[in-house]
Structures
1.
Amino acid sequence: MDIRIRRAQPGEYDTLGEILAQAYLQDGLLEFGESDWYLDELRDVAKRAAAADVLVATQGDQLLGGVTFVPSGGPMADLARPSEAEIRMLAVARAARGRGAGEALVRACVDRSRATAGCTAVVLSTQRTMHAAHRVYERLGFVRVPERDWNPLPDVEGFTLLTYQLTL
């Protein structure tokens, strides 16, 4: 059965939020675990959907994961410059990994970027330990841009996010 990428529906927001939260928790990606402020951000899909494109990967009636695509100049951008789109909060449920859902979500974001007038690049942030994600990004043509690495938590020393970019 093929993986399908489409916009998240409001009735899926809670499920998707929990998939994202659990993926980050289970992979040890939250600095403060269950008390991490970012957990609430991951779960708040409705907030993101009001300001960006939230996409989901499905297989049959199963929700596999999702991503937030921020078009060029979108308000949800953390890193993107005016002519860049941004990929944020990509996660696939642990039980659904290895089926290509993550790559399909990234490809959908790249396709949307190419269809966005004036968009010249796609950027994303990733943690150092997300090695499987790094391989997907590199396979799709993204390159590391170390001069754009950044720390969203200035009070937490050493928490630097790596930046990848795909020039369109």
2.
Amino acid sequence: MDTDPGRFADETHWRDSLAAWAIPEQIMNQAPTNPWIHPVAQFTVVAPVADSPSHATARAALPEAGSVLDVGCGGGRGALALTPPAGHWIGVDHQQDMLDTFAAAAQSQGVTHEEILGDWPDVADRTPIADVVVCHHVVYNVAELSEFIAALTTHARHRVVLELPLHHPLTWMNPLWKQFWDLDRPTEPSAHDALSIIRGGGHDAHIIEFTEESSRSSAMDTRAAAEATCQRLCLPLDRVDDVAAAASIADQASPRRLATIWWDV
């Protein structure tokens, strides 16, 4: 379904909305570990990837044995679902352990691959152009969205495909922040805010809203997911049972409302 509620969001609104997600300094100072580091196991693909509108849209623009650039690649979930027809993977990520996992996934599929360590678009000038560019679950980490989108577009021969939750992916944790820290958290921005900015940049972008068919397949068990939630909440691991009791970790992995945003170049 291609929908647009008609709301216009500029980049200032986007930037300010993301800034509101900053964790207050007095809480950050009590965090035993960095709450923004992603556990590699969460992005390690251990089961077949459920096909989604994002994958189908990207696959439709790929030639046989074509190349895919996966920005914020993690363990390679975006590229894996495109193989075949994809025959060459290019992964960009700011964590080396994510790139190592991406490379292992590519090797398991028998495709050629290359990895680039760094933040996008800082590494754009040393990243090859690909037939299709995909970027899954990254844009809510990007304050300067127009620059980010422009660099994605110039690196695609045929199509750019984004996948993101309809609302900020940490919104599900808001009740936990309230319970453990008495902290009210924001809910914006949204996928439609991103769509507005992309269209404002001159791209004929389309949006498809859908429900995730299954929870994210990863190497994390329930205990590890609870520990990751403690880390996100800036709590020590000795509070893991309290966190697990406060909210079912399974709720995090329950079907989510997602969006595919795509445009041809």
